[in-house]
Amino acid sequence: MSTSTTTSALLDVQNLRVHFPVRCGPFGGQKQHVRAVDGVSLRIQRGQTLGLVGESGCGKTTLGRALLRLIEPTGGEVAFDGQSLRALDRRALRQLRRRMQIVFQDPFGSLNPRMKVGRIVDEGLV
């Protein structure tokens, strides 16, 4: 990947993984992992908007939370505006999150029911 392409991306995600440990078996002794997010890579340029759509339980919310580091990824790399989120402390993360936004999948809690869909989409583009 060239330096100019990497630096021009507002959000650059490489091979992001979030695995949750679960215990199973008759006594909970066997430890396995649920792969909520496995190998996601994407690049969003400044001025672009990304809509992530999928069925219930496919990892949309987990991906969003991992991108903001509200949960710790199992692996991979996330850079926002050229800065790796892995290297940031709590205070720096809090400041950086002010520049990011996630609209969670619950439309009743996230979207104004009095607004038409076109206006809601327009709002994100302005």
Largest sheet data: 4 strands, antiparallel
Count of DSSP E strands?
4
Structural class: alpha+beta
N to C succession of SSEs? HEEHEEHHH
In words, what does this structure look like?
- This protein has a 4-stranded antiparallel beta sheet with strand order 2-1-3-4.
- The radius of gyration is 17 Å and the shape is globular.
- The model is unreliable at about 1-5 (pLDDT under 50).
- It has a single domain (about 5-100), classed as Rossmann fold (3-Layer(aba) Sandwich).
- The chain is of the alpha+beta class and about 130 residues long.
- The protein contains 5 helices and 4 strands, in the order H-E-E-H-E-E-H-H-H.
Secondary structure elements and their pairing?
Elements: H1 3-8, E1 9-24, E2 30-45, H2 60-67, E3 75-80, E4 83-84, H3 90-97, H4 107-110, H5 117-125
Antiparallel strand pairs: 1-2, 1-3, 3-4
Descriptive keywords:
alpha+beta, Rossmann fold, 28% helix, disordered N terminus, 4-stranded antiparallel β-sheet, 126 residues, 4 strands
